[in-house]
Amino acid sequence: MALPSSAVKFRRILAHFPQELSLAFAYGSGVFQQAGSSTAATENNMLDFVFAVDDSTTWHAMNLSKNRNHYSCLKYFGTKSICNIQNCGAGIYYNTLVPCNGRVIKYGVISTDALIEDLLRWKTLYVAGRLQKPVKILAQNENVKLQEALTSNLKSAVMAAFLMLPESFSEEDLYMKIAGLSYCGDFRMLIGEDKSKVMNIVKPNMIHFQKLYSHILQDSPQVIYKHQLGKLEIDKSPEGQFAQLMALPSTLQQKITSLKDSPGKNRDVEEILLQVAHDPDCRFVVHQEVNILESVLYIVVSESIVFKYIWLEMGSGIKADD
């Protein structure tokens, strides 16, 4: 469930930052209560934000003027260096452990173009994955391409989940699968991070998942949505699965086709996806490729973090830009 009395708190925090934002949202356990956490404990958690901006260089310049202490030693090297770091890995730059308005916050800055690309293609699924779960939208401009991309990301999550689920399942099963998309290949789930994390996210927040997805389910020709019973049935025929495969983001389609395309054949995407749709193991093929996509993401993000630390260590020898 969303925590109470948050609107004023978030507005006050957002007021500390330059207002040239195409999208701003808060996410995570500091915003939506998770199973096993008390309200009091949750309200003391770090607050996580993402800010999408049309011009990263200009936004960071304004933010350096307002909040110079938020930045690491990169502040001494100027906005160009900050943007170079932002463009590594998942395309997002984070300032973390920032005291703000009586809370500790972390905020990431991503360009609007990079966000749209991730939402449409799942290039990294880093921010797109967060937006497949309930978030608190704090600001959004009238960028039509961004709004369409946000909707497309939700529809893609539904199609991917359909392909990995059996013919009949509960609404909770669907949201568990969707919430788990961005954790499928996460090595942290194998080395100690709470493996019930997905369940802890979904169970207390069913109403928020329903707000995100109910209109998509009601409009989809692929599913019979028995809302009152919380049950769904999907078309698992080859024709139904082909339609679902064709609705996936291009990055995931490419992963699936590269797995199934024989060396030297170079068949087109539709031909290969039609073959996958007729495969009795279609759901397992898709699940495998989502795992690989996520594994690559966490390698990319980890390498980006390592690079940033190396860059910072070498910072004293780097010339500052204006």
TrEMBL record:
It is found in: Mitochondrion inner membrane. InterPro entries: Tam41. GO terms for molecular function: phosphatidate cytidylyltransferase activity. Pathway: Phospholipid metabolism; CDP-diacylglycerol biosynthesis; CDP-diacylglycerol from sn-glycerol 3-phosphate: step 3/3; Lipid metabolism. Its EC number is 2.7.7.41. The keyword Magnesium applies. It comes from the Eukaryota. Pfam families: Tam41_Mmp37. Its main location: mitochondrion. It is a peripheral membrane protein. One of its GO terms (cellular component) is mitochondrial inner membrane. GO terms for biological process: cardiolipin biosynthetic process; CDP-diacylglycerol biosynthetic process. Its cofactor is Mg(2+). The keyword Ribonucleoprotein does not apply. Keywords: Lipid biosynthesis, Lipid metabolism, Magnesium, Membrane, Mitochondrion, Mitochondrion inner membrane, Nucleotidyltransferase, Phospholipid biosynthesis, Phospholipid metabolism, Transferase. It is an enzyme of class 2 (transferase). Catalyzes the conversion of phosphatidic acid (PA) to CDP-diacylglycerol (CDP-DAG), an essential intermediate in the synthesis of phosphatidylglycerol, cardiolipin and phosphatidylinositol. Belongs to the TAM41 family. This is Phosphatidate cytidylyltransferase, mitochondrial. The gene is tamm41.
